[in-house]
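Data availability (excerpt). The following record was deposited with the supplementary files.
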Amino acid sequence: MLPIIESRPDDPRSWRRSTAPMTLILHHVIPFHLLRDSWNLVARCAHQAQAPEPHRAARQFLALVASRTLGNLNHYHAGVRDASLDVVECHQIEQRVVWPPWNIVEGPRQRSDDPGEQGLDRFTHGLRPYEAIRMQRAETLFRVLDTFVRSGRTDFAQLDWLASELSFLRPDLVCEEPIYYREEMWEADGPAVWRKRRS
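Predicted structure:
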Protein backbone atom coordinates (compact mmCIF):
# COMPACT_ATOMS: atom_id res chain seq x y z
CA MET A 1 0.00 0.00 0.00
CA LEU A 2 0.95 3.63 -0.51
CA PRO A 3 0.50 5.85 2.58
CA ILE A 4 -1.85 8.49 1.16
CA ILE A 5 -3.62 10.57 3.81
CA GLU A 6 -7.35 10.98 3.32
CA SER A 7 -8.65 11.66 6.83
CA ARG A 8 -6.91 12.90 9.94
CA PRO A 9 -5.36 10.06 11.98
CA ASP A 10 -5.73 10.08 15.75
CA ASP A 11 -2.96 11.81 17.69
CA PRO A 12 -0.28 9.60 19.29
CA ARG A 13 -1.59 8.09 22.53
CA SER A 14 1.93 7.89 23.92
CA TRP A 15 1.96 11.65 24.55
CA ARG A 16 1.06 12.67 28.08
CA ARG A 17 -1.83 15.00 28.83
CA SER A 18 -1.48 18.03 31.07
CA THR A 19 -3.90 19.19 33.73
CA ALA A 20 -5.20 22.76 33.61
CA PRO A 21 -8.28 24.76 34.72
CA MET A 22 -9.72 24.47 31.19
CA THR A 23 -10.20 21.80 28.53
CA LEU A 24 -6.98 21.25 26.59
CA ILE A 25 -6.47 20.05 23.03
CA LEU A 26 -3.51 19.71 20.68
CA HIS A 27 -3.06 22.62 18.25
CA HIS A 28 -1.22 22.36 14.92
CA VAL A 29 1.29 25.11 14.15
CA ILE A 30 1.30 24.23 10.42
CA PRO A 31 -2.28 23.29 9.51
CA PHE A 32 -3.25 19.69 8.89
CA HIS A 33 -4.30 20.20 5.27
CA LEU A 34 -0.90 21.59 4.27
CA LEU A 35 1.00 18.68 5.80
CA ARG A 36 -1.45 16.23 4.19
CA ASP A 37 -1.38 17.79 0.74
CA SER A 38 2.38 18.21 0.55
CA TRP A 39 3.03 14.64 1.74
CA ASN A 40 0.49 13.16 -0.66
CA LEU A 41 2.13 14.95 -3.59
CA VAL A 42 5.60 13.78 -2.59
CA ALA A 43 4.51 10.19 -1.92
CA ARG A 44 2.75 9.87 -5.28
CA CYS A 45 5.76 11.30 -7.12
CA ALA A 46 8.16 8.98 -5.31
CA HIS A 47 6.00 6.00 -6.21
CA GLN A 48 5.55 6.92 -9.87
CA ALA A 49 9.02 8.22 -10.81
CA GLN A 50 12.35 6.48 -11.13
CA ALA A 51 14.48 9.64 -10.94
CA PRO A 52 16.38 10.45 -7.73
CA GLU A 53 14.74 13.81 -6.99
CA PRO A 54 11.29 12.51 -5.93
CA HIS A 55 12.92 9.81 -3.83
CA ARG A 56 15.17 12.33 -2.13
CA ALA A 57 12.14 14.51 -1.34
CA ALA A 58 10.26 11.53 0.11
CA ARG A 59 13.23 10.48 2.20
CA GLN A 60 13.75 13.99 3.57
CA PHE A 61 10.05 14.30 4.37
CA LEU A 62 10.13 10.98 6.23
CA ALA A 63 13.27 12.03 8.11
CA LEU A 64 11.56 15.27 9.11
CA VAL A 65 8.56 13.51 10.65
CA ALA A 66 10.25 10.30 11.80
CA SER A 67 11.12 9.48 15.34
CA ARG A 68 12.44 6.44 17.14
CA THR A 69 8.91 5.04 17.05
CA LEU A 70 8.88 4.90 13.25
CA GLY A 71 11.85 2.58 13.05
CA ASN A 72 13.92 1.79 9.97
CA LEU A 73 13.78 4.80 7.65
CA ASN A 74 15.21 2.81 4.72
CA HIS A 75 12.38 0.28 5.01
CA TYR A 76 9.68 2.96 5.02
CA HIS A 77 11.28 4.88 2.18
CA ALA A 78 11.46 1.71 0.06
CA GLY A 79 7.86 0.97 1.00
CA VAL A 80 6.73 4.34 -0.30
CA ARG A 81 8.69 3.85 -3.52
CA ASP A 82 7.25 0.37 -4.11
CA ALA A 83 3.83 0.87 -2.44
CA SER A 84 4.69 -2.23 -0.43
CA LEU A 85 3.78 -1.11 3.09
CA ASP A 86 1.11 -2.90 5.09
CA VAL A 87 -1.89 -1.19 6.71
CA VAL A 88 -0.16 -0.69 10.07
CA GLU A 89 2.97 0.79 8.47
CA CYS A 90 0.91 3.15 6.33
CA HIS A 91 -0.96 4.32 9.42
CA GLN A 92 2.33 4.92 11.24
CA ILE A 93 3.59 7.15 8.44
CA GLU A 94 0.28 8.97 8.09
CA GLN A 95 0.15 9.64 11.84
CA ARG A 96 3.73 10.92 11.89
CA VAL A 97 3.10 13.24 8.92
CA VAL A 98 -0.03 14.72 10.50
CA TRP A 99 1.22 14.77 14.11
CA PRO A 100 4.96 15.56 14.12
CA PRO A 101 5.71 16.67 17.69
CA TRP A 102 7.58 19.77 16.54
CA ASN A 103 4.30 21.01 15.04
CA ILE A 104 2.07 20.52 18.10
CA VAL A 105 1.28 22.78 21.06
CA GLU A 106 -1.11 21.75 23.82
CA GLY A 107 -3.45 24.54 24.82
CA PRO A 108 -7.01 25.63 25.61
CA ARG A 109 -9.81 24.33 23.40
CA GLN A 110 -11.73 27.63 23.58
CA ARG A 111 -9.59 30.23 21.79
CA SER A 112 -10.27 33.60 20.22
CA ASP A 113 -7.21 33.49 17.98
CA ASP A 114 -7.20 29.98 16.52
CA PRO A 115 -6.54 30.28 12.76
CA GLY A 116 -7.86 26.77 12.17
CA GLU A 117 -6.89 25.54 8.71
CA GLN A 118 -6.43 29.06 7.39
CA GLY A 119 -2.85 29.76 8.33
CA LEU A 120 0.16 29.38 10.59
CA ASP A 121 -0.50 29.20 14.35
CA ARG A 122 2.87 30.49 15.50
CA PHE A 123 3.60 30.92 19.19
CA THR A 124 6.04 33.56 20.44
CA HIS A 125 5.66 33.99 24.23
CA GLY A 126 6.61 31.66 27.04
CA LEU A 127 8.87 29.47 24.89
CA ARG A 128 12.23 28.01 25.81
CA PRO A 129 15.04 29.31 23.54
CA TYR A 130 15.18 26.08 21.51
CA GLU A 131 11.39 26.16 21.13
CA ALA A 132 11.55 29.71 19.79
CA ILE A 133 14.04 28.54 17.17
CA ARG A 134 11.72 25.62 16.38
CA MET A 135 8.83 28.05 15.83
CA GLN A 136 10.95 30.14 13.47
CA ARG A 137 11.83 27.02 11.47
CA ALA A 138 8.19 25.91 11.46
CA GLU A 139 7.21 29.27 9.99
CA THR A 140 9.82 28.83 7.26
CA LEU A 141 8.60 25.29 6.62
CA PHE A 142 5.03 26.58 6.36
CA ARG A 143 6.12 28.94 3.58
CA VAL A 144 8.09 26.18 1.83
CA LEU A 145 5.22 23.70 1.88
CA ASP A 146 2.68 26.35 0.92
CA THR A 147 4.83 27.37 -2.06
CA PHE A 148 5.25 23.74 -3.09
CA VAL A 149 1.55 22.90 -2.94
CA ARG A 150 0.33 26.16 -4.49
CA SER A 151 2.79 25.92 -7.37
CA GLY A 152 1.16 22.70 -8.55
CA ARG A 153 4.60 21.71 -9.82
CA THR A 154 6.03 18.27 -9.16
CA ASP A 155 8.87 18.42 -11.67
CA PHE A 156 12.29 17.21 -10.62
CA ALA A 157 13.69 20.71 -10.02
CA GLN A 158 10.83 21.55 -7.64
CA LEU A 159 11.17 18.27 -5.76
CA ASP A 160 14.93 18.74 -5.48
CA TRP A 161 14.35 22.23 -4.04
CA LEU A 162 11.85 20.83 -1.54
CA ALA A 163 14.26 18.09 -0.45
CA SER A 164 17.02 20.66 0.15
CA GLU A 165 14.71 22.87 2.23
CA LEU A 166 13.52 19.95 4.36
CA SER A 167 17.09 18.81 4.95
CA PHE A 168 18.15 22.31 6.01
CA LEU A 169 15.24 22.81 8.42
CA ARG A 170 15.20 19.36 10.00
CA PRO A 171 17.97 19.72 12.64
CA ASP A 172 16.11 22.50 14.49
CA LEU A 173 12.69 20.86 14.18
CA VAL A 174 13.01 17.18 15.01
CA CYS A 175 12.03 16.33 18.59
CA GLU A 176 10.15 13.60 20.42
CA GLU A 177 7.33 15.42 22.24
CA PRO A 178 5.09 18.43 21.60
CA ILE A 179 5.07 21.59 23.69
CA TYR A 180 2.76 20.72 26.55
CA TYR A 181 0.47 23.24 28.22
CA ARG A 182 2.35 26.06 29.91
CA GLU A 183 0.43 28.81 31.69
CA GLU A 184 2.82 31.57 30.63
CA MET A 185 2.02 30.92 26.95
CA TRP A 186 -1.65 31.87 27.31
CA GLU A 187 -3.85 34.73 28.53
CA ALA A 188 -7.59 35.12 29.08
CA ASP A 189 -9.60 36.87 26.39
CA GLY A 190 -13.03 36.85 27.98
CA PRO A 191 -14.96 34.37 30.10
CA ALA A 192 -13.57 30.86 29.50
CA VAL A 193 -11.83 32.03 26.28
CA TRP A 194 -8.07 32.17 25.77
CA ARG A 195 -5.51 33.43 23.30
CA LYS A 196 -1.77 33.17 22.81
CA ARG A 197 0.13 35.57 25.04
CA ARG A 198 1.89 38.19 22.93
CA SER A 199 3.63 40.34 25.53
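Summary of structural features: The chain has one domain: 24-196.
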